[in-house]
Each structure stands twice: as C-alpha cells, then as structure tokens.
Specification:
Length: 371
Amino acid sequence: MYRALDCTSRCVNSDVSEKNSLRLHIECDVCLQSTEADYDSVPVEVYGLAMLKGMGWKAGEGIGRTFKQDVKPIEHQLRPKGLGLGADRSAIRDLEPSGPRRPPKPGDERKDETLVLGPGGHVLVESGAHKDLYGKIEGVDPDNARVVVKLAIGSKTVTISQYALKLVDRTEYDKNGKDLSRLSRAHKDKEKEKERQRREEKERRSNKEEERKKSRSSERDRDGGKDQRKRKHRDSSQDREKPQAKLPPAAPSWLQRDLKVRFVDKAFKGGKYYNSKMRIEDVLSPNICVCRTEEGRFLDDVKQTMLETIVPKTDSEDIMVVLGEHRGQIGRILQRDRDRSRAMVQLDRYEEKVFTLDYDSICHYVGGGDH
C-alpha cells in the first residue's frame, strides 16, 4: 500500500514539474517575441547594413571579383521646390560674409538684412490695383509665380503676381507700411508741386546763364548795341513767359442710384473700406453720392473718384449703362469679351438690338426694377 502511494506521489510530482517547465518555456518564448514597435524603432538602413554584412561585406574593403574598389554610394540631395536645374545654393553661401557675427546692440540698425521672397517677408506693390501698398508675405506659389500678401492697410489678404512686388526691409515696412499720408491726394499734389518747383528753378538758372552769355557778347560788339540789346531783352522776356498748363478735362459723371460699386480709395477712414463693395443710395451732385456698405452702414459725401464700376459675374443679373448715348438704360449681358474688356448687351428699351459696350460703360444694377 505504501509503495502504491509512493508511485502515485512521484507521478504527480513529475506532472507538476513538466507543467512548470512547459509554462516557463512558453513564458520565455513570449517574452523574446518581437513586436511591431520593435521593427518601427529600427531604421531601414540598419536592415540593409545587416543584409550586406550577412553576404560578407565589410566596411572599408573593396567589392568585386577582379578589380576590387571601395565605391562610395551616391547620396541624392533633396532640391527645394522652385529651384531651377543647374542652380547651386552653395554659390549663395560663398557670397555671404565669413567674418564673425556679433549680436546687434540696442539701437543699432541691421544693414545686412536678407530680403527673401517667402513667408514673413515684406513687400511693396509696384503695379496693379494695390499699387503703393505695403504688405507681408503669407505664402508663395512658385508654379504660378503668385504670392499671397496680407496688406498693411485694411489687413486684407490678396494674391498678387511676384513680378509686381518689390522686396523691402523691416525698417521701411514699419516706417511706411501704415502711413496714410503717402496715399492721400494732398501728399501727391505736394510731391508734384515740389517737382514743378524744381523744374522751374532749373529753367530759371538756365535762363540766367543764357542772359549772362548774351550780355557778354553784347559788350564785345558795341555797333548797333541798343537795337541788339532791345532785341535780346525782348527775346529773354519771351523766354521767361511760360505757357500756362492746361487743366485736364474733368472725368464724365457716371453716378446713379442703385448701382453696386467697389470702393478703391486707400486713405478714406484709414483704408477700412478699401476694396469693399457697396451700393449707391443717393446722388447729391454729379460727383458726390451717399453709399451703403454690405453691413448696412451709410457713408456720406463719397466722391466719384473713390469708386469704380463693377461688372456682374453672372449674365442673369441686370446692368445699367452709365456712360454714352444710352446712359441710364437697364439691360443684360449676352456675351463677354474679356480680352478686350467689353460685352454684348441687350437693353430693355431696345430688345431687338444688341450693343457692344466697354466694361467702364456698364455697372451692376441692383435696383430690381425699371430705372
């Protein structure tokens, strides 16, 4: 009986030890298994290096059968978008000053500021609808040569051709970016007056020089001096008389009620309404009107020079003829010629006729009825 119990105890102990050994083996195998995170943490080039070493490759030793050479691999450098073929960025680095750079002291001006056509750069618009305005670059489209610029006056974001922009430094941008006096008519008239005074001063000096030469020649030849002096005096007085400059003719009036127009004055109210659309509510005089913004705010004493006409985007909207023989007539656009900036228009009063008018002669009409 004791022998039977001893055999049973041995069998049980043997089974327990086998189970423990199997469980330990399984646990060890599970612990050593690689996970997806382990593969992700190993760079791809390490896998390739391990494969090469497995095939007998050693660093610094030549490869090949007959002429063994240690060939260096070609490393391709990523070229920035927009960098043309053959352009070498290292040539720009050679032009940079190689001397030690010290941090600028308080009050020092940075004269070596790099002007870059990229986000954060400062520009001046030299042509187009936003001429003479400063802005900050927010994005660049090198494929289409377009630049996204946030204007300093009005804080509006517009897309402008990069060929219409001039890069400026931060100092000029901070000084003139929001200076409305540059854009005012009084400032421009003042600049024209200075230019006119400079021309007059130059002509005055030239006339004095001519008179001095004539007086010297008259002293040399005294025969018939009186008649000659009279003639010279008469000629010099005629030279001093300048023809009065003719004033340019006034622009024809085109203001009408219920027209949708665009506000283009950059200095009015600090440029708050620049490039915004509004409606003419009343015409006070041929060149002055009252406008209402899209937010419902009324603007009084708006001059015609502050506005420009708008051509509707769709042909289903009404237009009004604002210049020419059919001024004040309402109609619709049948066909557009964007290359020549004109359109074929059918007027309500002449339904059997079609007229070809320039874009400047028509404007978007939002009155909703016959004029």
